[in-house]
Automatic annotation (TrEMBL):
Its main location: membrane. It comes from the Eukaryota. The keyword Membrane applies. It is a lipid-anchor; GPI-anchor. The chain crosses the membrane at residues 124-143. This is Protein sleepless. Keywords: Glycoprotein, GPI-anchor, Lipoprotein, Membrane, Signal, Transmembrane, Transmembrane helix. The lineage of its organism: Eukaryota, Metazoa, Ecdysozoa, Arthropoda, Hexapoda. Residues 1-19 form the signal peptide. It is found in: Membrane.
Amino acid sequence: MNFYIVLFLFTFLGIETLAIKCWVCRSDSDPKCADPFDNSTVPITDCSHEPDLMHFPGVRPTMCRKIRQKVNGEWRYFRSCAYLGEPGIEGDERFCLMRTGTYNIFMEYCTCNSKDGCNTGANLSSMSFISLFLLISFIYYFVG
């Protein structure tokens, strides 16, 4: 009987979701956010703690993004958690989406979920709490 309890614990309480951690900064307010990136004073952010977006209800960040933007000859860098998109171009994170516009505007949009600075870590999901409830019910029913 104890074997089944241990098996149940390893099977269900081990359920985790991956929480991505990203650098969150802007070069217009922190020059260290620009390239070359100096993360010595920028704390890494757990994207699971980022707020929900009103215009995308229920969508959570699953990647990191870096936007490099040139407007009128001035480079700006934005690093943040990404709610939408795909890593890299066709899944290859070495490549970024590039766009040019009128009035001397250039933008490079990079997304990733597996590189340094795009760290993943374990974050307990709500499934763990459900599993705990099931475990207590299981023990009460079969053991108690």
